[in-house]
Amino acid sequence: MWHNNILETVGNTPLVKLNKITKDIPATVLAKIETTNPGNSIKDRMALKMIADAEKSGLLKPGGTIIEGTSGNTGMGLAMAAIIKGYKCIFTTTDKQSKEKVDALRAFGAEVIVCPTNVDPEDARSYYSVSSRLVRETPNSWKPNQYDNLSNSQAHYEQTGPEIWEQTEGKITHLVAGVGTGGTISGTAKYLKEKNPAIQILGIDTYGSVFKKYKETGIFDKNEIYPYITEGIGEDFLPQNVDFSLIDHFEKVTDKDAALMTREITLKEGIFAGNSSGSAVAGTLQMKHLFKEGDVVVIIFPDHGSRYVGKMFNEDWLRERGFLADEKLTARSIIAK
Ligand code: PMP
């Protein structure tokens, strides 16, 4: 038995029970480990779906160039598919993204242009603007636009939702997912709520992002926007893939709590997951009053710890940001807490 190429291995990721880190929660808490996708992240799913839909609609033509603003994981999925399908890739990203992510994209043959983080999306230097300009200037190019391209959430409606429903035998009561483009939470939620409208959908947001305030007040408040460290989630605008009507509650998590929880996941569960997984577990613990015995909570773990070895997995990095005093983050010190 074999797969015809690496793209056929995307999806069907495992669901793994968390045993120690969520011991204060009376429910069964399960992690959907998306790192087993070949690009090591959940974004492989939507990258493939956006490409397949663009090929069908004729937006992406043979030998074309894919140009996208991506924080790395989407780029990885796109670059992997581009190699198999014969496309070129140019990505714009921000100077906040880990070097490991940018290097990995270059390893997949993509051209990567690093843009400043702390400028308005409309600013000509922003990674959104630069990618739009490159699309205008590059013949036979296509911009997936992961934020507003609904093939993104559709991938999760077709795959992630059904997988979770089947893996929990329909017993899931709560879904916890970080919200960036919104594709993961909205597509998965749509499928799950169609199966059982009582399932609660809990979105993880960052301080410095607009989602939570917008959900609670309907106001797009620019004062909510400021720089933050957490990668992959939170935004300074409202992507079309975020379907606010499907999300019951947003929980914000600090950069420090997300970073330290990322470490704790590895040390307590042996799962080497990325920064937004830490955010999602920290947020789940903040919401523990919502869960009761018999509940089945599924937390999405979007990407792999290897992309953060120079960041939260590095003690000097944590100390420089005041996230850690002098102690060493050994398994024993964490578990003794
Ligand atoms: N975590 C990580 C590490 C990501 O790269 C992303 C994608 N931006 C997310 C979470 C959020 O997923 P989505 O874009 O589907 O909302």
TrEMBL record:
One Gene Ontology biological process: cysteine biosynthetic process from serine
Keywords: CBS domain, Pyridoxal phosphate
Keyword check for Membrane: no
Cofactor dependency: pyridoxal 5'-phosphate
A Gene Ontology molecular function term of the record: transferase activity, transferring alkyl or aryl (other than methyl) groups
Superkingdom of origin: Bacteria
Family label: Belongs to the cysteine synthase/cystathionine beta-synthase family.
Full protein name: Pyridoxal-5'-phosphate-dependent protein beta subunit
Organism, as annotated: Mucilaginibacter paludis DSM 18603
